[in-house]
Amino acid sequence: xxxxxxxxxxxxxxxxxxxxxxxxxxxxxxxxxxxxxxxxxxxxxxxxxxxxxxxxxxxxxxxxxxxxxxxxxxxxxxxxxxxxxxxxxxxxxxxxxxxxxxxxxxxxxxxxxxxxxxxxxxxxxxxxxxxxxxxxxxxxxxxxxxxxxxxxxxxxxxxxxxxxxxxxxxxxxxxxxxxxxxxxxxxxxxxxxxxxxxxxxxxxxxxxxxxxxxxxxxxxxxxxxxxxxxxxxxxxxxxxxxxxxxxxxxxxxxxxxxxxxxxxxxxxxxxxxxxxxxxxxxxxxxxxxxxxxxxxxxxxxxxxxxxxxxxxxxxxxxxxxxxxxxxxxxxxxxxxxxxxxxxxxxxxxxxxxx
Length: 354
What we know:
By secondary structure, the chain is of the alpha+beta class. About 50% of the residues lie in helices and about 15% in strands.
């Protein structure tokens, strides 16, 4: 589990650009699903989330023991994974469809396995609980006609079919709560233990918060163009020195800077000092927050910056990460338990993908 945990150091960027494994997405959905039948992917869903009408919806896609899962079940799950499908012509983006279809198929098979296990254990849902869930479900519809439309399409017009679906959803939730959610709770003491045993994950190097203004002529520019760039840089630096605030410096950056950050008031946010040119870092060490640096030359380019903050190398305090750390550890533990449950249930079941 240790290798799967994200870094928590302030200087680290988030998970931008990182491909998210569909299995993790499914695990998060499963953890959320166990909290309430009305938000579970296996729960009855409103008419807006129902698959579109059309031929082939009753075509089998999998068989779990004697239960047959259909294209309708698969599409319903894909809609749960991608709730904006209605805005995309009733389908998911083509680039995502193969992986999402594969993940959705595994999910509906898993849910059927869990449901059958709940029946085997003779788990019971009271009539009052089902009635309460049905009342909450009906409130999702804007009008009685919308509810009747859903009932006709998804439940063959039968309220009894709807109640059976609600019962199925509650049974799945109940078993998952016992086998996954209740067992995946992480205490503050456990989070603290992980924090103490994995110091590197919470350590960071020195960071600087800066705004930059750069004048950047072409590297092989003629001498007169380079001279003009130097003159422009000196004028910009003089104006930058005269600024008195983040906003004033930022507006100047938007007006005169050539670097990529000029569109964001020159703000480079928090940057690891180790990733910046040493002359810039050396200059920052001699400055106070709010100071504007001297004009620095890098090749044919000129740069100066406003120091908005500096954090020495160190370790992020436990109090700052404990909430996210508990959540991440719990999600990882829940995924392990869910995967283990799936594996155990498959060992005694006959599963066929059609």
